[in-house]
Design a protein that fits this description.
The chain is built from four helices and seven strands, in the order βαβββαβαβαβ. It is an alpha+beta fold. InterPro entries: DUF2000 (IPR018988), Pep_tRNA_hydro_II_dom_sf (IPR023476).
């Protein structure tokens, strides 16, 4: 098993429905992949030679917490200057990327109804950001 100096983590609000948790996680990690392409592994291929897209080269840890834990994690991530992706409740009601961005832009940061966030950074910094969260079950 390899050891990594960094951590990719997703934090989900603990009251989301199962489909929402999966949807939010997929959207959030796409932001991490976009800004940190060096985290991507090599493409896959099966024994028949069929090629598949690459994935992250390190594990993604998924956590859950209350709305208050998410709000605190958001503030800590901002305070540490780390870039991170967010998913707000409003995004469950939009149907495209432009409307998603408009929905987030319409709300001040401290009033965002966070459904989840994903962050990548040094292990110790990410662990401190996630204080109060628990591994998703």
């Amino acid at each position: 098993m390899s050891s990594f100096d960094t951590k990719i983590a997703v934090l989900l609000r603990d009251d989301l429905a199962s489909w929402q948790r999966l949807n939010v996680t997929a959207f959030l990690v796409s932001g991490i992949a976009h800004v940190t392409p060096e985290l991507m592994g090599e493409p896959y291929a099966d024994a028949d030679g069929t090629e598949y897209l690459p994935m992250f080269g390190q594990p993604i840890m998924v956590f859950s917490g209350t709305a208050d834990v998410l709000t605190a994690a958001h503030a800590r991530a901002l305070g540490r200057g780390l870039r991170f992706s967010i998913f707000t409740d409003e995004l469950f009601h939009t149907g495209n990327d432009a409307d998603n961005r408009a929905a987030v832009r319409a709300v001040p940061g401290e009033k965002l109804a966070l459904a989840g966030m994903a962050v990548h950074g040094p292990k110790n910094a990410v662990d401190k950001i996630l204080k109060g969260a628990s591994l998703h079950r």
